[in-house]
Amino acid sequence: METIIEDDELGILVIRANPRARSLVFRTKSDAIYVSVPPGTAIKEVKRAIEDLRSKLQVSRQKLMRPLIDLNYRIDAEFFKLSLVTGEKEQFMANSKLGYMQIVCPPQAVFADEGLQDWLRKVIEESLRKNAKVILPHRLEYLSKQNGLFYNSVKINSSQGRWGSCSVRKDINLSYYLVLLPSHLIDYVLLHELCHTREMNHSERFWGLLNRFTNGNATALRNELRGYRTCI
Fold it and tell me: What's the pLDDT tens digit per position in 136-153?
């Protein structure tokens, strides 16, 4: 017998009782996260374990889904475009400007090398950070003033689990991966966090407020956002 949990950040979790299990065991696969539990384990206990391990589960799931960065790798988002090309020199070169990045690769680059993949991701992520710091705070300020939803401060971070967050002090944190989204979904995330400056939960009042600022499309936009990932 199994139980299915659908999580906005982690996707599908499949909970299965295993007579041989002595503790909860999490296994991340491409289609879902599978959780083996001892028979009789309460679903409340499983959910508590999921919250305790949430950040680790997010990282393991996203690493599993990461594509290889090579000459065929492209990013063609509205606010950020990336391409890799072959050059003549025996070293990598990164040409970057607002909204665009090109990485020039040596002819003999071995893209299967794990160290190279880590380096490429760090270079691309740093460019995403710089773009996000230019784009996101200005857009957040505009939406704040337009809708009368006021916040205290904004910071750009590298979160791979949440697009954004808002504290009780009205401090907003935004993942720089937001610049990979189309503009209407960026606005949705920003408005989502701005609405938390009034409602610090996901109650009916919160969704009613967000619906008002998204022309009644909050649920549709949330579902569309699920098709995107906070990683490259």
Answer: 999 999 999 999 999 999
